[in-house]
Amino acid sequence: MAGFCVERGADPAACAQPVLDGTHRDLLDALEFARRWAAGGTGDELPEADEEIIDDAVLARLGGEADEALRLALAWCSVERWQPAALAVLCRSAEVRRRRASALLPACRDLAALERHDLKCLAYALAVLDDEPLVVLHRPTGTGFEVRIGGIGDNFQLHTLLAHVLVGGGHVPGTAPSAESVRLATDPVPAQGRTETVATGAFELLAPDGERIWNEGLPDDIPVVAGRRLLVLDEPVYPRSWNADRFFPMLPGTAELTRVLSADEARTWFASTRRPS
To answer: Each residue of 3-22: pLDDT tens digit?
Structure first.
């Protein structure tokens, strides 16, 4: 109910505590369910997240007090139900993300790794970076930039905004993204339904070691080098395009060029990188 109220305009910061406390509690309880299930020693795979599995045999396998075992089993089966409410508060408040996201993200990722729960959207929302400095190196021109990003839901959106800032700003060659694709990435008012706008890739996104940073991934995937996230842009290996709608409709992204690096600074950062194999 609190999540629904936020979707209808209630203050997300005021509603965040009960929503995210409940989310965190059930994530931890679901992980404890998985631990006890494995400790049962029969080698059975983890069950599906369906309340029909809960019976006396399952509760006995979990051990401990009956009420506690039931709580763990219910958490295992219902933790995904927290996801819409959690997204409502996380996607509408940078303050909430700054205060709460990092504590929930490890448990969310650990539970998702067990492959019995679809928690992709929650994990992505918890990993959103806000007011994050990023060093961006453009290998074809040997130039470097400091960019500050925030509210970006995936690397498709990041790719569009970097192309807007760097190509559209005249700093590197290429074709700038369309005004509509930039608007879809940044406008506080979300698109009404899926649009037909297509964004086209301007770069290959690479980690400092030359490994690819996938558009389907997150800005949080970009490695930290010497205290800064370091991203290398190269010529695209092949043409790419994607629907320009953002991953989280209620979360507008930002990317601001804060500084062009000097030639010496850019060379120093490039020395920390390798070309792709």
So the answer is: 999 999 999 999 999 999 99
The rounded Cα 199 to chain-centroid distance in angstroms is 20
For residue 241, the cross-strand partners are 200
Q: What is the 3-state secondary structure (H, E, C) of the chain?
A: CHHHHHHCCCCHHHHHHHHHHHHHHHHHHHHHHHHHHHHCCCCCCCCCCCHHHCCHHHHHHHCCCHHHHHHHHHHHHHHHHHHHHHHHHHCCCHHHHHHHHHHHHHHHHHHHCCCCCCCHHHHHHHCCCCCEEEEEEECCCCEEEEEEEECCCCHHHHHHHHHHHHHCCCCCCCCCCCHHHHHHHHCCCCCCCCCCCEEECCCEEECCCCCECCCCCCHHHCCEECCEEEEEEECCCCCCEEECCCCCCCCCCEEEEEEECCHHHHHHHHCCCCCCC
| Phi and psi based region of residue 193 (left: phi greater than 0; alpha: psi -120 to 50; beta: remaining) | left
Closest by CA to 124, choosing from 236, 209, 221, 18, is 221
**Which pLDDT tens digit goes with each residue over 140-196?**
999 999 999 999 999 999 999 999 999 999 999 999 999 999 999 999 998 888 899
Mind listing the pLDDT tens digit for each residue in 77-89? 999 999 999 999 9
Rounded Cα distance between 168 and 257, Å, is 12
Task: Please give the Cα distance from 187 to 204 (Å, whole number).
Answer: 25
Give pTM, 2 decimals: 0.93
Task: Name the pairing type of β-strands 132-138 and 228-234.
Answer: parallel
Closest CA to 29 of 88, 99, 117: 117
Q: In 10 A of CB 102, how many CB atoms?
A: 11
Give helix 12-39 / helix 94-112 axis angle, nearest 10°: 10
